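Hi Q.,

Before the meeting this afternoon, I wanted you to have the zinc ion prediction in hand. No need to reply - just skim if you have a minute. The sequence and ligand are here:
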Amino acid sequence: MIRSLLMITLAITLQQCSYSQNNSSKNNTTNMDSTKKNNPVYSNTDTSEVKMNNEEWKKILPDEVYYIARMKGTERPWTSKFENFHEKGTYYCAACGNPLFKSDTKFESGCGWPSFYEPVSKTSLINTPDHSHGMVRTEVQCGRCKAHLGHVFNDGPPPTGLRYCINGVILDFTKAKDAEKKYTEENKQKPEN
Ligand SMILES: [Zn+2]
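Predicted structure with the ligand bound:
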């Protein structure tokens, strides 16, 4: 019984994977919103550790986020909307909402993935040695939910010399409040001029 259930789940999973790949760019926004609504652990302020198994994660994360976060997948280079993105604000973990990077530590690395030289805080991330694919790399995980984010290399710019190479799919971006405020004020002033 359990085995047949597993087979059904697997079949559904495979279908969803190919479906989401074909439609990922179209459905990105919808997926993000529905994630937050159905995701009981998502918070930009709660720092308590999130402990859930993959089965539970699979129920609440969009397929493309689950693939990166829990299966340690890698998005295709040059496909992230954040690759050439210069808005001021904060990047959060798309799985749990943990603040990861600020836009002023983002830089053009030319590697094909959004790159940063410093995390929001020392506890934002967890670094783990990664010997997969015949390489010696350092994997970067979310400090709160342990989602796979990407890798860190020591060929980044000053002041840290680090290059955090992060999958855009696992990032949520929120515009800086100051920037929003300024934008609103500017718009208010326009009619008077
Ligand atoms: Zn997280």
